[in-house]
Amino acid sequence: MARSLREVDPEALPLLESVLEISDGFLGDAASGAAAAPAWAALGTAAQDALTAGLARLLLRVRAAEPLHVACRGRRDFDVVRRGVEAACHTDHMFRAMNSLLSGRTSPMDLSVREIFMAESVRWHLERAAPHERLVVMAHNNHIQQTAVEFDGVLTALPMGQHLRLALGEDYRALALTHTDDHVPEMSVDTDGTEAGTDSGSGVGFTLVDTRLADPGSGSVEAALGAAGLGDEATLTDLRRSPAHAQGQPLLRRIRTQSAVQSLSVPEAFDAVLSVPTVTRDGAVPF
Questions:
Q1: 87 or 243, which is more confident?
Q2: Residue 261's beta-bridge partner residues?
């Protein structure tokens, strides 16, 4: 990016350098949002606002220089630089959102900013792909689902999948992943965002703790697989013709999400569910 700006708009370099100085100063070895959010919080309001304002000014300037940039370095270079600055702006917003989440204060629209960015990134790549090419995106169920993410009736986020379904229609398909085991590796984060338990030095801001699970309950995908005698097998269930109650309510209305259970219309949220009988921790994961 610096090389492009140096050729196209050298007067914008001080903006880039100022935001990098602030971000490099607090990110350090942070390897995830869980680690970066508390580090961002320690900056102080003046530095936080300077980072946000600097990124906003840089994005506006990059956009304004589009004709010159395309003429000097080509369309693709401009597109990549612009998308990079947009990514930085969204990431800066998510520092605030994640810090609020870890502090017990959050807004569903704050967390949805990450979701729309991911959806737009998928579309960005699709627009630059060959007509016959398809794109496979691997993400958490709560990111790919096609309905709003809610827990205990509280709106948490409008996910990437909901945005993609709106934009792409049936060209977007969501394949959920679940399991029928009675335990799962779960994230454990201290209230201050530092690693819980033994410090692994990984910089991710959390550790994985094997967590026992309660029964997911009636109406869950996992219970239905168990009742059908399929709990000990790897299965792929097509939800596009999923049965419903006489009143029209879906029979499948719950699915596990890490150590929690989410209540939702499973057939509306996903097109299919891949289930495995057991979950194990990757021995190569150091945290």
A1: 87
A2: 256
CA–CA separation, 210 and 168 (whole Å)? 38
- DSSP H stretches of helix in the chain: 2-8, 13-27, 33-41, 45-64, 66-73, 75-102, 108-127, 141-144, 160-168, 221-227, 266-269
Tokens of 47: 């530095």
- Within 10 A of 89 (CB to CB), how many other CB atoms are there? 18
Tokens 């600055």 label which residue? 85
**Residue 236's beta-bridge partner residues?**
274
Six-digit token pair at 66?
Answer: 């589009």
Q: What is the mean pLDDT of residues 177-194?
A: 80
Question: How far is residue 114 CA from its own chain's centroid?
Answer: 6
| Nearest Cα to Cα of residue 210 among 138, 282, 284, 104 | 282
Share of the chain above pLDDT 70, in %: 95
User: If you average pLDDT over residues 76-94, what whole number do you get?
Assistant: 96
Secondary structure (3-state) at 255: strand
How much is the pLDDT for 13? 95
| Rounded-to-integer distance, Cα 186 and Cα 285, Å | 13
Its pTM stands at 0.89
Sequential DSSP letters for 95-141: HHHHHHHHTT---HHHHHHHHHHHHHHHHHHHHTS-TT--------H
Q: Write the CB contacts of 4 (distance below 8 Å, at least 6 apart in sequence).
A: 69, 73, 77, 81
User: Given a cut of 70, is residue 195 above it in pLDDT?
Assistant: no
- Pair 31, 203: CB distance under 8 Å: yes
CA distance readout (Å), 117 to 114, 124, 164, 184, 229: 5, 10, 11, 29, 40
